[in-house]
Target: Alpha-L-arabinofuranosidase 1 catalytic domain-containing protein
Amino acid sequence: MNSRRKLLKAVPAAALSAILPPGMMLLTSEKAAADTAPTVYWSITEQNPPNTRQTTSELFGFNVPWGDFQQWFVGADNKVKSIVTANLKVFSGALYRYPGGTPSNAFLWRWAIGSTHPRPSQPWTSNTSLPADFGIDEFLAWVRNDLQGKVVYTLNMQTFVDKNTNVPKMFATPSDFAADALELMSYILSTANGDVVEYWELGNELDASPSWPGATYAAYAAELIKQANLSTDAKIRAAKIVIQTATNIGGATHRQTWNADVKNTLAQLGQSPDAISAHEYYEMPGTTADMYGMLTDIGIATAQWPNTPLLVTEHAIDLGIYDQTTAIHKYASAMEGGIAAADFTMLALWSGWAGANWHALEHGAAWELFHITADSTKTIYPSAILPSLVALRLGVPVGGRLVNHVVLKNSTSTYPYAQHLMAFMDSTGTKMSVVGVNRSAAPISLKLAWPNINQSTKVNIYIAWNAALGTVTDASDNTDTVQDYVTVIQYLQTVTHLMEVSGDQTVTLPIPAKSVFALIAI
Model:
């Protein structure tokens, strides 16, 4: 481990004061001695009433735009490149959204199945086409066999291939759509890997188009829900159908009533979804709103559909209007983007959402889970998002439960709060872990009053950080020449630290600036 990767010693900082988003407890602070680091102190206690909801790995998923993924991350042998699969294995049980976001609105499933290759070329972007050779069958097999994951399948509600003429057409009626969707569901669910599809999402951001008012969308959704419930196939009857909610409520006029129009029309037609989905792009650089203040679309959606499971099928930093030649474009996948993605996932864990997909497993846009070098080797390497989410995932016990969480703010962070911490108990009720993000520009000394620890307790420490992180527009940690800028302690290797329990039954651990971390009692 070189000097750049050493845990930094904490430096003095101003006194810390707490902020309290709804449902969060106060985190107190204490002043350290003049010659020591500032100490962030948390006495871990059970929230009241205790949380009994089990944690889920489905919050650690990714959006997979089919064409981009196939072009960059699938090899000549039509298999996913080993570096991609190897790095994703840690997210066992995660949800992978396919065939992605906007591309799903033109994806022709009949041209993406079967053993014949090459398959017919189909629309990938607005002006390019591509045969889906790594199509539905191949994708489901990869998720099931190599990743032990699950799938959110996003249905094309606009176009289909006529099975009699093999010619693409537009859907003319809700019945046309429902019939084609049921054929696709029947095909997938009859295959050996079909049971990895956990959810069937209806379209991608169709609220963006005036040609898809809420009432029209709901009529299509209602017909599919109705016909699925009437199916003689038990697997189709059990399928979880997900409707999308509006993505940009403050945008065009028709979007402002879209959620209400969808719900009212579905009610009139006597149908309801199994879950809802939303997209959230948060923390646009230069704004002062925190993670919790940015969730306007999700707040409106969940208010419209209370007690309905929520999938956030796209989330990432919001760049607003950006130029791909500027450093701000790279910011989305740099360390600040990793911290934001981890913090959002922590919010999802606290909120009890059903699933989440970071955007995206693609190349060329602002949001990249993996980068690819610009030289002739086209070498694939992880962006900061990957180790940040890995560190968090390792500290969240699947099947365990959230014990409590806290937020803290101080003057060393330009963000509205400096740290967000969560404590979890595993499914056995004997092992606790603590995860968190340190948004501060200064390292901290994290002092925990940790229940059930003793002098022989050890903790695994996983930390993702970049010691050289600069300003918002500093993309130095996101380039081909600095591929090894951020690590989870030698990336997925474990540092075991013997708990040094003091007389007041606390333990103190160093946490670097601008980091995502997990501390796991073993």
User: Anything to note?
Assistant: The first strand starts at residue 25 and ends at 26.
